[in-house]
Amino acid sequence: MITFGTIVILGILISLIIWLFFRENKVISWILFILYTGFSFVLLLRLYGQWQYYEAFKSIIYLGNIKIKFTLQNNMLGWIFAILIFGISFFNGLFSLGFSKSKYSKNIVPLWTLILSASILILFAKDFILFFVGWEYLTWPVFFIVNQGKKKFYSDSMYYFALNVLGGMALMLGIWLVFKNTQTLDIKTSISILLSHKASIHTFWLLIPFFIAFLVKSAAYPFHVWAPRAHSSAPADFSPFISGIMIKFGIFGILLFIYPLLSKGFIPGTYHGVPTTAYFLSWLGIITSIVATVLAFSENNMKRLMAYSSVANVGYILTAIFLTTPLGIEGGIFHTINHMIFKVIIFITLAAVYFRTGTADMSKLGGIAYKMPITFMTFLIGIIAAAGIFPMNGFTSKWIIFQAILEKHFYLMAVAMFFASTGAFLYLYRALHSIFLGQIKPEHRDSVKEVPFLMQIPMWIGMILIISIGVFPGLVLKPLIPFFNSIGLPAKYILTSLSKLPGSFGQLNTLNAAIIFGFAAVLVTILFFVVAKHHKKPFMDNYTAGEDPKDWGVDENRYQFAYGFYQPFEKKFLPFFKRSVDMFWQYFGFYTKHLGEWFNNIFKDDNNFGYIAIIGIVIIFIFGGFVL
Amino acid sequence: MFWLFLIGSIGLVLIGIFGLITRSHLIKLLLSLNILETGINLTMIVLGYQNGGKVPIIHSLLDLTKPINFVDPLPQALVLTSIVIGLGTTALALILIVNYYYKTGKLSLERSENEKENIDE
Amino acid sequence: MNSIVLLIVLPLVFAFLIPIFKGLGKYASKIVTILSMLTGMGFAVYFFITLQVPVKAILGGWKPPFGIVLVGDKLSLLFVMIIYILAFLNLFFFDNNFKEHSKFYTLYNIAIAGTAGMILTGDIFNMFVFIEITGIALYSLIAYSGKEQALKGSIKYLIIGSMTSLFLLLGVTLAYHILGSLNLAHISSKFYQIPNNLKFLILSLIFTSFFVEAEIFPFNMWVPNAYKGANIPIAALLAGIVSIAAGYLLFRFRYLYGGMRSFGNMLVWFGVITVVIGEFSAYFTYDLRKILAFSSIGQMGLILIAAGISNDLSVYGGFFQILSHSIAKMLLFLLAGFIIYEAGTENVKKMGGFGKNHPYLTGIFLIGALSLAGIPGLMGFWGKFNIVGGGIAAGRILPISIVLLAAIAESVYLIRVVFHLFKTDEGKIIEKKKIPLGYLMVVILLSLTIVVIGVYPQLLNQVLNDATKIIMNSGSYIRMVLG
Amino acid sequence: MIFLILLKAFLITLWVVFIGLLFLGIGRKITARIQKRYGPPFYQQFIDVIKLLAKESIWHHWIMILGAIMALGGLIATALHVPIAGILPYDSNGPIFLVLYLSAIGYLGMAMGVSASGNPNAPLGIGRALTLMLGYEIPFAAVLIIFMGLTKSSYFLQIAQSQAGGILHWNFIRYPLAFIGAEIAVQAMMAEKPFDQMIAPAEIASGPLVEWPGKFLGLGMIQMGVSVFIETAIITNLFLGPSHNILDFTLKQFGIYFIALCINAVMPRFKIENAAIYLWTIPLGLGLLQMLITFVL
Question: Any idea where the domains of chain B sit in the sequence?
Fold first, then answer.
């Protein structure tokens, strides 16, 4: 059975069929999407263990004198990504099937299917060309998904598109630079040939295009500006995909191409056993997470806030990976997977809130938890995981990342990461409070109710996954053992049981800790229910001391404290961060436009054509050395 | 003689270029173009000309056993073609200019107000 | 085989038959032109398939170094064939402002004959004549719509075109004066005798003329006016057909005469400037026709870069680029004709609702735009990808980087057009209009070509590899023509 | 096996709660004495808790209950991972990251509970508490990381045992800068003055707990005791050498708490943003300086 080919071609076909025939029929198209992802998921599952499996195209493509036979090669890293992508898309599809009936939704299935089939190319490509093909098809369809043909979303989607095209162009440049140095377009071969070259400082330039391409895609620091914009404009049920999956392709690219080079000393110079370049990139990861964290404090749009959280998490992952130690890779990959799961869940709950209320402004929400308890619980578990608090999966991977940093004795880096990590707690709590807790708005009091069961399925699955991975990290890490062996992870860092977190500075038995936690929770619960009785009262009865707020000239309906939550903090720190990067890209666009205007004016001035042409001829002569 | 012709023809070329650069009046542009063309045609003739050369026609008075200093006939043929093409072009240009004049009432390619683009958002 | 001369003569004959037949009916001249293109196409395809070895057609009975010779090898015949195919498809254009006239078809035939002649001829002076023939036909065609912009573009094109063909003539004269020949192959075989700087002068003078046809920067002031003012089929003709001939000439002359690296450098940098100016100008404007015009400029700049970089990868990519650009640009212009007609405006921002009326047509527009932007899986990708590869392999990293930066702007403005077509939240929804069947077929055919060749480039692999070998091996060309 | 662990955990919980409440009671007395008042008896806190737990109370929503349970449960679970003179319910050795992140669940629970109460003053206090938390966690983490680096382990137990061999080996003598930094951070952690912005009685109607009635408040009080216990226990483990028995350990804890009380009794209050900045300059600076001295020089 041809797995990859089937998935790719089926994806393209389904995309076409949906676009041609079922564009208006959301139910059929989402059902097709669910069937497609489920089918592909099952197909992919069968490939576990068959790491030698490959599929080659029959015919050979010539580029000039270069012969290329396209091959898709099964590999561990790609497989685990693919499984997660299709699994997550499957459940996301279930959610969207319910979501798409709402008036806020537009049919995005064809493009999404196209992206999924492109992702197979990226994950399993043996050569750079197929990788690039997948990369480009990951880029442009999202532009249309993000703006949905709406003018108000245009500039947001353009931020996304322009930056990602920059990444694509950089990738093209990088691919050919590698080709120039190795005379091959095969990824694995080119890595080994590059490593056999004598390392020199010039090799650094070779990697810069790849850095740009992958950092743009993963929304790392100087390029992170697209992430919040794209998330906030995209349809609510597509945001999980952007955050959970799309930005992970940058990480995948780094693991695929940059990590093998850097870890083997492709660029000379090391600092405490870490390649100097990688060390600085590690700090870039830290900067990414700190900047994103600080920006998230003042964000009022819930999707933007969570997008910043994604950027921050990408920062942790980059930090871990660029330590270029096996333990760092373990932590980085583990956090990637965990982040995929919990961020998808968080965005799905946000979509559920949006589905019922129709707004993404946190200051217009509040008290939704009382009407949507399942959604609230899912969100709560999601943010506990996102903050890296213990019984959830976010903690386990953060533990390994911290251990990896400490293993290299980068203590300052650990402190800086701690800042970002604690900051995450702040903005996540703010989202929890502003969306779900506090007082409910009168217009939501009757209209909002829990989402239908179909849309709850992914939430339940997500909750179970988050908690079970948090308690048994081995569920994820054990199947990955072949991969960790291949990168040379020392045996002491390989998980022996389901629940022992490895670490350089000590291990942790998550199961025991969870038992203790459960014990404490049960104890307190018993205590709470054993002692005196309690009875329920409406909100206003207590804090207003039984008086009607209207008597004091206060509208009782609007006393939800959400806007400017960390105002003292914002006042002190924000202007600096807000200015530097966003402004840079804004000015970039602005001046590009003016450059265009300037060029355009050359053509518009109709009288100058003669002398411009003559000047051209003169320049040609100058080139030839006649005048000078 | 050769150099005089050459300098003269290059001078004509330069005059033509000068006209093309500095004038905006369409008829003057066209005139400059024609001057340029004349200059280049003259250059061709000059380059094909041999000092003291004969007309390249074989007739009974010629002694074909001795080397004969013929003038190269090909450039002249080429120039003839070039002149014809130049004539056609000029005619077409004049028609276009006349049309343009009827359309806009102007004889130079100024930017007109009614074709302003609506660009800014 | 003297019959490749038919490829030039046929359209000329039909061109002057049109005035005779035009009285027969409303569509007579169109039918004659269709016949002309069909027969031309038939011959071209026949020659392309049957001719295994290069052929020359000696005219007037004078052997090559002296007489006029037409040379048909695999490459030139391929290009002529594609010119005929595109010229035939272009006849199914959609332009509501267009009134059918016999004069138009006469000129159209002459222009096709001229471009075919430019490609097939083996004589440099003859080439000058063909350039002028094409030129005169094009000047008239551009001015045909009678709009102010068209007249402006036509006049500019005429003056710059005539000026540069005079320079070409000067170059030819110099070469003739020194080497005593007008035959391309013969000049090429003796070209090494000329000192380097004089070589450069001659080549510069010749190339300026190609630059005008190829819309290279300082010589392309006419382009926006012409594309903006001319009727749609003529814009498509300029972008789709003339650019093929111009691209062919760039490559042919580059490899027959321009072995110098300094000359290659000049071509590369002119290409870079053209790409940057074209792409950023298009990025700024919101006029659909102007966007396509500036995009043409950018694409032709890329072709020039490919010609400037001398390795097989870039030549292969350059040919791919020539073909993909002409097909995609013709497709886009044909679509633009209908879009402008239905939307009633040329401002991209006011075209909202078109995508809702004609989603499939807009999808086809998207295919064309993505192909131009070099998205993989479409024809344009292979050209761009290979040119970039060739450039880097030749060590020209800085120019290629600049081109890639400009390509970002290109992707942005192309996808922006599609966005504005697809956007739904515009207040005014434009009225839906009916699409002519023939036009629709042509559009679908072109877009299918883009997709099929993009997905399956092996279709062109063999042909273009041969073409690359032919163009890079100027020795065999010389032997073939002279021997 | 697991029953043994749970039994141990239960006993330790009782001890933790007892000591925490005792500390609070003694603290009230001492503060009163410093301020020349008579003050309540030292067992007053137990009376208060029992009284509050016995009171019938109202609730608005189950999230409030969930929050209260999470708050206390999280902190108790945290306390069970801090070694008390080497005693732990199971052989976890007191993993530092777990303690740091588990304690967050307590704060999250409390924050959630008070948010769910609907009183707008409550989240105001929480906002301040969290801002302050961002302030003190960083210097505290810096100090922790110094000792983790020194002992090459991320366990409290190892850090405590590494100081064996007399008082001169204790960390507060060997690393005084870190000790001062940690002390200031702990002052903020315990929300004692000058860092009591989150309760700020005169400003925001006694902060997060404003809406917690009856037994909620009782749980809150226990929680406060537990958190005092955890914070003093952490400092004791870090700086005050290995303890031979529980009494020794508790006395050291009390010493720490006593310092905090004394400062609390005489200090005014920072504005919240100034508090954060102060914490990021003085204690963090001290911590980083110590780090520099320890690892670089």
Answer: 2-54+70-108
Residues of C in contact with B93 (CB under 8 A): 139, 155, 158-159, 162
- End of a domain among A481, A502, A518? A518
Q: Is the sign of the CA dihedral A49, A50, A51, A57 positive or negative?
A: negative
Domain range for A204 is: 3-518
In a domain, A198, yes or no: yes
B73 — contact with chain C (CB < 8 Å)? no
Nearest chain C Cα distance for residue A413, angstroms: 35
Residues 6+ apart with CB under 8 A from A196: none
Is residue A88's pLDDT more than 70?
yes
Give yes or no for residue A350 having a pLDDT over 80.
yes
The sign of the torsion formed by the CA atoms of D227, D229, D232, D236 equals: negative
Report d(CA B104, CA B89) in Å as an integer.
Answer: 22
> Which range is least confidently modeled, A235-244, A499-508, C93-102, C369-378?
C93-102
- Report the domain count for chain A: 2
Domain B2-54+70-108: CATH architecture, name and number where available? Orthogonal Bundle (1.10)
A505/A573 same-domain check: no
Please report which confidence band the pLDDT of residue C175 belongs to, taking 50, 70 and 90 as the band edges.
confident
A562 found inside a domain: no
Please identify among residues 569-598 of chain A the ones whose CB lies closer than 8 Å to any CB of chain D. Answer: 569, 571-572
Which of the four pLDDT bands, split at 50, 70 and 90, describes residue A446?
confident
Q: Are residues A281 and A176 in the same domain?
A: yes
Q: What is the pLDDT of residues C278-334, one digit of tens each?
A: 999 888 888 888 899 999 999 999 999 998 888 888 888 898 899 999 999 999 988
> D281 to chain A: which residues are within 8 Å by CB?
none
A544 within domain boundaries:
no
Q: Name residues whose C-beta falls within 8 Å of residue C105's C-beta, 6 or more positions apart in sequence.
A: C15, C18, C29, C30, C32, C33
Is residue A229 assigned to a domain? yes
C144-171, pLDDT tens digit by residue? 888 888 888 888 888 888 888 888 888 8
Among B113, B117, B120, B121, the strongest candidate for a mutation testing the C interface, having the largest count of C CBs within 10 A, is B117
Cα distance between the two ends of chain C: 15
What's the rounded Cα separation, in Å, for the pair D190 and D261? 10
Question: Are A254 and A332 within 8 A, CB to CB?
Answer: no
From C275, which residue of chain A is nearest by alpha-carbon distance?
A: A599
C226 to chain B, any CB pair closer than 8 A? The answer is no
Nearest CA in chain B to C166: B37
Q: Which of B111, B112, B113, B120 to mutate to test the interface with A (most CBs of A within 10 A)?
A: B111
Q: What is the pLDDT of residues C65-76, one digit of tens each?
A: 777 888 888 888
Same domain, A487 and A617: no
List of chain D residues whose C-beta atoms are within 8 Å of the C-beta of residue A367: 118
Smallest CA–CA distance, residue A452 to chain C, in Å, is 29
Please tell me which of the candidates D134, D155, D210 has its beta carbon nearest to residue A422.
D134
Q: With left for phi above 0 and alpha for psi between -120 and 50, is residue A116 left, alpha or beta?
A: alpha
Closest CA in chain B for residue A594:
B120
ipTM of predicted assembly, 2 dp? 0.89
Mark yes or no for CB contact C152/B93 under 8 Å: no
Calculate mean pLDDT across residues D250-271.
88
Count other Cβ atoms within 10 Å, centred on residue A196: 8
**In the structure, do chain C and chain A come into contact, i.e. share 3 or more CB pairs under 8 Å?**
yes
Which residues of chain B make contact with A614, given a CB cutoff of 8 A?
A: 17, 20-21
Q: Please count the other Cβ atoms lying within 10 Å of the Cβ belonging to residue A614.
A: 17
Q: Which of B17, B23, B110 sits opposite A614 (nearest CB)?
A: B17
Q: Using the structure block, give the residue that is written with the tokens 């307590």.
A: D106
For the ranges A202-206, B15-19, C401-405, D265-269, the lowest mean pLDDT is seen at: A202-206
A302 and A445 part of one domain: yes
Q: How confident is the model at residue A389 (pLDDT cuts 50, 70, 90)?
A: confident
